[in-house]
Amino acid sequence: MSNALSNPVIESEEHRALRAAVAALAKRYGREYFATVVAEGRHTDELWQEAAKAGYLGVNLPEEYGGGGAGITELSLVLEELGAAGCPLLMLVVSPAICGTVIARFGTEEQKRTWLPGLADGSRKMAFGITEPDAGSNSHRITTTARKEGGDWILNGRKIFVSGVDIADATLIVGRTEDAGTGKLKPCLFIVPRETPGFGRSPVAMELAAPEKQFELTLDDVRLPADALVGEEDAGLLQLFAGLNPERIMTAAFALGMGRYALARAVDYARTRQVWKEPIGAHQALAHPLAQCHIELELAALMMRKAALLYDAGDDMAAGEAANMAKYAAAEAAVHTVDQAVHTLGGNGLTREYGLASLVTAARVARIAPVSREMILNFVSHQSLGLPKSY
Does the record bear rRNA-binding in its keywords (predicted)? Predict the structure, then answer.
């Protein structure tokens, strides 16, 4: 199945080579490996370590700190190809893309030296905590507060749906200073090591087949040194969106990989499954919907590439619009494609053998996380079209 993005006019020889190398690695693991890891309650450590050794995990991080010196464009290709083989690494979205980017752009020299080499070579991981139980999509209602006490910071609050806290060495927590409890959000970001006193976690039971677990966090008078703060305490939204735009781009890559995996399985089945004279793929009632899914995935991939290129070029404002659009388009395409793939296989689409049933739930994640499609439509309505807000 051809991929229009393999055209050298649209994608460089280096990017095509990166895709091919990651795809070859991922193919050796595949969906069966991923499903086994989930069933046994393990993590994808073997794939993570091999991808790290090849330099894929930190491809976006600065060379002087052990990274590849490239950008989110390259990291998104890595995640997409892993997903297309059926074994995506969710922590790629969180550890190098969000946390690594924020530290590389706004961290102190000491923070960069402490964290970036480990994030780049896969020996360390970092989680990201922004969502709160009572705030939902309204990040302006963040109530996790930080107050100064002598030379330290004291954090109090709660977070929900934080991925991989159990396997992360630390979590990058988004809070607000105590005197900024009213008015516009001025987020501040803190590195909280996993075993810090007062930093509690409890798993959230999810109907989701994934190696990475979700957690609710409690911060009860968590004391941190002054150098736990990343960036400025009153820098506003800039340093937060430095992490959120890559998050949206990488979520698009996650969804695209999933969609491509599902489509490939459905096409292979439709090409070979025969119950009448011709394979079922000859019937337009099945062929046309699969063709439509392919078109939708290709369109989303182009928008993801645009968003990544804008972000890597330093155009944060334009990248924000494109990243939201890419995440929206990729999520919709993935949900549609997974649904059509299951439908194409009929009863077989719901068996473990074909590896599609678990994607029905997983595809929905891309629609609602890290930001819902409705909030993206709000963003486009206000920012792109200039329509008045309803809230």
Answer: no
